[in-house]
């Protein structure tokens, strides 16, 4: 487990842990302050994909008006929100920005890449973000809580139904990625064909032999006719 200290000041503390791929169960989980939750759902692809629904912690027996929970699996909530965590959340409710634990973290912000393509390059990450720690002792308590929770999660095992749901969700994403990759390859092949036809067309316009031009135009007409018949056939199949 590797720790990156993303931000530390008198006003905030953000910790990011790179977790071992085979050391934890597969799930996406997040607790966030109300002011942070909507942004996380919008910006974090894994949360948006696996658990976009925000629920108040009060629905899980913790008296909190400011914190929301987003979880792919219900038994992850039950395990994480034990009495120790509940006490910590109630005590430091004002300081918690978010706690985000995921096996599908992607920090690719490129607008040229689709969300599904971004999910093809993922990491297992846990991020803990706190604001306004009063002193060094409080910052230490935030760090110790983060380490303790991750240590507990190493021993956590999903129930059979949750394991099946988790596997099914990831299989669905894998299939989407494969389909997206196939579509991109098809688009690249089609673009290459169209470029070759464009160059061929330009060459024919420069051709001085009228017979060659006539044969080429005949070939193009047959090709367009074949494409038209194929489109009609596809439309008929779709309408059945």
From TrEMBL:
<dbReference type="GO" id="GO:0032469">
    <property type="term" value="P:endoplasmic reticulum calcium ion homeostasis"/>
</dbReference>
<comment type="similarity">
    <text>Belongs to the CCDC47 family.</text>
</comment>
<keyword id="KW-1133">Transmembrane helix</keyword>
<dbReference type="Pfam" id="PF07946">
    <property type="entry name" value="CCDC47"/>
</dbReference>
<dbReference type="GO" id="GO:0005509">
    <property type="term" value="F:calcium ion binding"/>
</dbReference>
<keyword id="KW-0812">Transmembrane</keyword>
<feature type="compositionally biased region" description="Basic residues">
    <location>
        <begin position="224"/>
        <end position="240"/>
    </location>
</feature>
<keyword id="KW-0472">Membrane</keyword>
<dbReference type="GO" id="GO:0030867">
    <property type="term" value="C:rough endoplasmic reticulum membrane"/>
</dbReference>
<feature type="region of interest" description="Disordered">
    <location>
        <begin position="195"/>
        <end position="240"/>
    </location>
</feature>
<dbReference type="InterPro" id="IPR012879">
    <property type="entry name" value="CCDC47"/>
</dbReference>
<feature type="compositionally biased region" description="Basic and acidic residues">
    <location>
        <begin position="195"/>
        <end position="223"/>
    </location>
</feature>
<protein>
    <recommendedName>
        <fullName>PAT complex subunit CCDC47</fullName>
    </recommendedName>
</protein>
């Amino acid at each position: 487990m590797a720790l990156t200290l993303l931000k530390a000041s008198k006003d905030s503390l953000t910790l990011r842990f790179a977790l071992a791929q085979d050391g934890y169960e597969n799930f996406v989980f997040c607790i966030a302050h109300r002011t942070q939750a909507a942004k996380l759902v919008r910006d974090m692809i894994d949360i948006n994909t696996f658990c976009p629904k925000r629920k108040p912690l009060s629905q899980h027996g913790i008296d909190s008006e400011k914190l929301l929970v987003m979880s792919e699996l219900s038994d992850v909530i039950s395990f994480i929100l034990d009495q120790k965590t509940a006490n910590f959340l109630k005590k430091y409710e004002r300081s918690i920005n978010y706690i985000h634990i995921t096996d599908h973290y992607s920090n690719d912000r490129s607008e040229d890449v689709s969300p599904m393509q971004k999910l093809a390059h993922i990491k297992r990450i846990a991020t803990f973000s706190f604001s306004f720690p009063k002193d060094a002792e409080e910052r230490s308590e935030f760090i110790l809580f983060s380490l303790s929770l991750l240590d507990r999660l190493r021993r956590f095992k999903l129930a059979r139904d949750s394991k099946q749901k988790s596997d099914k969700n990831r299989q669905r994403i894998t299939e989407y990625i494969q389909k997206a990759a196939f579509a991109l390859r098809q688009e690249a092949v089609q673009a290459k064909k169209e470029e070759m036809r464009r160059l061929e067309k330009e060459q024919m316009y420069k051709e001085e032999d009228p017979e060659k031009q006539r044969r080429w135009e005949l070939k193009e007409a047959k090709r367009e006719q074949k494409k038209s018949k194929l489109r009609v056939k596809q439309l008929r199949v779709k309408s059945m």
